[in-house]
Write a structure and sequence with these properties.
64% helix; mainly alpha; 4 helices; 172 residues; Ferritin
Length: 172
């Protein structure tokens, strides 16, 4: 199999991973009662959409027989989001809302799947392959999402601290 064809297959699968994440986060945002968690899921969905656009452009380049050009994956808005979760809003509502803990566990699994996919596919490419860097950069971004979601989960459960501090505010 030639390199471009292999890259198109990898990128098509990666696009599906991002699309699945986008759908997961939109659904979680719709079902979440807490505005802070809802906003976090909206930000995650936006990131997944941006990743999907980057991957689609790269796939189209490979399908056209063009060589890979390095791509910059911008930093996420989610990195700026600080948790503000009320203890009373953690319960499942009568309208089928997800509890924040349930929603965050779904998000953790989604990020883990995405990160692992990108790492695995990057390992399949030769070290001198420039496209390998894109996959590694996406894996790193998914790991950052995972870490942020885990910190949010720790914060809600009271088992950890948000960046080693008990509380933050968005006030500057």
């Amino acid at each position: 199999m030639d390199f471009n064809k292999k890259m198109v297959e990898i990128l098509n699968s990666a696009i599906k991973v991002e699309k699945d994440g986008l759908i997961t986060y939109i659904n979680a945002a719709r079902k979440s009662k807490d505005i802070g968690v809802k906003n976090m899921f909206i930000s995650l969905a936006r990131d997944e959409y941006n990743h999907m656009e980057i991957l689609e452009k790269e796939r189209d380049r490979f399908m056209a027989g063009k060589s890979y050009e390095p791509v910059h994956v911008p930093h996420s808005e989610i990195e700026k989001l600080i948790p503000h979760v009320k203890e009373a809003e953690k319960k499942r509502g009568a309208k089928g809302e997800l509890s924040e803990i349930e929603a965050l566990n779904v998000a953790l699994e989604q990020e883990k799947l995405s990160r692992d996919y990108y790492q695995k596919k990057a390992e399949e490419l030769p070290d001198d392959c420039k496209a390998k860097q894109l996959l590694l950069e996406l894996a790193k971004m998914e790991q950052m999402h995972y870490d942020l979601i885990l910190a949010q989960l720790d914060y809600i459960k009271g088992t950890g601290f948000w960046f080693d501090m008990p509380e933050f505010t968005l006030e500057l």
